[in-house]
Each structure stands twice: as C-alpha cells, then as structure tokens.
Amino acid sequence: MHVIVQKFGGTSVAKPEGREQVVKKVREALNQGLGVVVVVSAMGRAGDPYATDTLIGLARGVLKHVKPRELDLLMSCGENIATVVTVQTLKANGIDAQAFTGGQAGIITNHNFNNARIVEIKPDNLRRCLEEGKVAVVAGFQGITNEGEVTTLGRGGSDTTGAALGVALKADVIEIYTDVDGVMTADPRLVPRAKPLAEMTYNEVCEMAHLGAKVVHPRAVEIAMEGRVPLRIRSTFSDNLGTLICDVNNIGQVEIRGDKVVTGLAYISDMALIVIQSDEDLNINGQVLEVFQLMAKSGFSVDMIQVSPYQISFILTEDLADRAKDVLAELSPQISAEKGFAKVAIVGSGMRGVPGVMARMVRGLQQAGISIYHSTDSHTNIACLVKREEMCNALQALHEEFELA
Ligand code: ADP
Ligand code: MG
Fold first, then answer.
1. Atom of ligand 1 at shortest distance to CA of 186?
2. What is the distance, to the nearest Å, from the Cα of residue 16 to the centroid of all Cα atoms in its chain?
3. Which DSSP state fits 196?
4. 7, 174, 185, 187: residue to mutate for ligand 1 pocket, most atoms within 8 A of CB
5. What distance in Å separates the CA atoms of residue 157 and residue 78, rounded to the nearest whole number?
6. Per-residue model confidence as pLDDT tens digits over 287-341
C-alpha cells in the first residue's frame, strides 16, 4: 500500500473551519488510493483553551517549577485532544479513523524529557490501522520511552513526528500543512512581498530553518532527507501545491534553482553581541580556548564566532547575555555584552563561488541606511548582525536587492 503522511499544524486544527479543510485534504489522498496517516499539533496558540502554552500555564499557575517529566505528561495532552477531535470530525464526514498517542504509534524516544530524540519507530499498529482501511490520526510532538514514560520532542516537534513516521512507513510523500503557501522567500509577516517557492533542496530548507525560518523544523527536514522521502510544505487553506522539497538527484534534474543566487531570507531576533578585547595576544595564554570552554561548560550555544589575536566576538540569545558576561568577567575586564540585535541572513545554494554576493548584501543594507555590526558566511549563506529595530527594514531591503519578489 502506498502511504502518505499529512501533518497539520496548530492553526490548521484550531477551528472547525480548519478541520473541515483537514477532511478535504484527507479525502483527496484517500481518493488517490493512498493509506493516510494524519499527524496533528495541539489546537491553536497561546491563549486558546487547549493550546500547549495554555496547559503549561495551568500547572505553573499553581507552582512555578514543573518537573520535566510532569511537564511532558501535561504538554502531550494538547495533541491527544486534537487527535480525538480530528477523528470525530473525519467520522462525521464518513471517513473511518482511529486516534493514536505517539507511544501507541510506536514512537520510541530517549529519556531527555522536554526535548527527547526519537530512537526507534515500531509502526505495526499504524500499518494494521491502514490495512483495516482506516485513517490513522497520530498525536504529534510526543513519544514514549522503553520504560513507558511519556516524552515530548521540543518546539516544532510535530513536524519531526510527521517526518519520522513518513520515513518509517516509506511514505510516497510527507505533507506539512500550515497557514502559508509553503516555504516563502521570507517570513510573510515581516516581508509582505514574499512569495512561495515551488521547489527547494533539503539542504536549502534546512539551512533556512536553522537560520530562523520557522515554517518547518530543521530536524524534520534532516529526517526526510536521510530517509529520502520528499517533503511538501503547503497551506491547509488553499489548493496550491506549496513547496516541494527533495534532493536534486531524486527528481533527476541537475539544477532546479535556475540562475538565482539567493533563494530566501531568514532571521533570528533577540540576540546579544559579546566582544572580548585585549592588549595582549589572546592566543598566547590560552584565553581563546578558555573563552569557548567556559561557554561550553555553561551550556551556552554561541554563533557568528570571530577570533583574532586581540579580539574575540560572538553572539548568543539575549536571555543568556548577562550570565555569559559574568562567566567571562574572570578572564578579561574588557568584555562587553550588547543586547538588541538581530541576525538577518541570505540563503541559496546558487551563491557558491559566485563573486559579488556580499557586495550586493552590503549595498542593499547601506541603501536602507542600516549598519552591519558583525557578519559570517558559509558556502550557501551570508548572515549580518543588525539592530533589532532595523531587522524588518533590513529584510525588506534584501528582498528587493536580490529581486526575490
Ligand atoms: P504550524 O502551526 O502550522 O506549525 P508555524 O507557525 O509553525 O505553523 O509555521 C508557519 C509560520 O511560519 C507562518 O505563518 C510564517 O509566519 C512563518 N514563517 C517564517 N519564515 C517563513 C518562510 N520563509 N516561509 C513561510 N513561512 C515562514
Ligand atoms: Mg510549526
């Protein structure tokens, strides 16, 4: 039996109108003769009664600290509720369906509560359900340990569930349904002229997701890539095909990008810039090593790292800035931690080895009157640090400069 996995995000299942669209998408897949596995997120966002953040507030309202194990038991409820409501909706429309928790669907994880990793999938229950001609509706974002403890997979975890099940069931395609028409050239909330991209490679999407584009979780893309299952990001609320993500080779084409140097933009806001300066060569007394060992010991993930004899700089999330400064103060008195930055990035596998991309990026930002405080690059992205209040302008300027609209 050919299988399709359809994952529906919180905005898709929040309201009855969205759930009617879910029925439509499931029916279309059934009409193609496919076995359908639906993965659902919790219904709605913070403030909605059954959204995950609302459930967390319920426990924290009693006592601030919730043990990670108990938190997982609570956080998994939102998706459990969504599975049953979705099953009821499908049945009301004449489609037989059965609900599964992550554990019942055979998603086995490690013990890392709140951010567990899938270690194995035992898809027998799902296969049986499909063979009985029913749609399997699985709670996203959760799994179970070998000892039977309920775990959750971290933010964006439902995407991961969808991808992992797609690979385990050797699905024809994993569809991630959301409230936008696929991966767009930039976040449409900040860049109104952003447009959907028809095709991308796993690597490009992964890079965009790691650089902050929240449309799909990078882990999900990695899982689909490793399992060589195509991924399609599309809207619950339209018939557009969205973005097809696969390996260039998979579809037998050498180049799916055309001559575009930049495919899309991404950003991460609320970053702090840490700068350590010295009058003496920081390498000589091993201070460079000490800086990064201290950050590692504190569990701080650093980014945009630049090392030179008399200066070390990097960024980390704003909430860690004060603690990082305290930790590093013992090493050098010349340390600054400035908050209020955002990282904006251009992404595209087409920029590899092409001269003049940075010049265009600088031109675009300069014409908009935006200063660059720091920059890093790889073969397929260039990122610049700008002031947070200029982030939106920066994205719009770069969108114009690279003619993404
Ligand atoms: P869901 O609840 O369906 O998982 P998410 O909020 O996780 O939805 O993801 C969809 C949102 O991602 C969109 O509403 C959009 O604002 C945001 N987004 C950020 N960057 C991009 C991008 N490059 N393309 C499309 N959407 C993006
Ligand atoms: Mg999401």
1. 23
2. 26
3. B
4. 187
5. 13
6. 999 999 999 999 999 999 999 999 999 999 999 999 999 999 988 889 999 999 9
Q: Whose CA is nearest to atom 4 of ligand 1?
A: 9
Token pair, residue 129, equals 């359900």
Q: How far is the CA of 253 from the centre of ligand 2 (A)?
A: 29
Alpha-carbon Rg for the chain in angstroms: 23
* Sole residue written with tokens 């991308």: 200
What is the number of the ligand closest to the CA of 178?
Answer: 1
Q: Please report the atom of ligand 1 found closest to the CA of residue 185.
A: 23
pLDDT tens digits along 207-259? 999 999 999 999 999 999 999 999 999 999 999 999 999 986 544 454 445 56
Instruction: Tell me the pTM.
Output: 0.91
- Which contacts (CB < 8 Å, 24+ apart) does range 368-371 have? 368/393, 368/394, 368/396, 368/397, 370/394, 370/397
- Residues with C-beta less than 6 Å from any ligand 1 atom: 9-12, 41, 178-180, 183-184, 186-189, 213-215, 264
| Single-letter amino acid, residue 242 | G
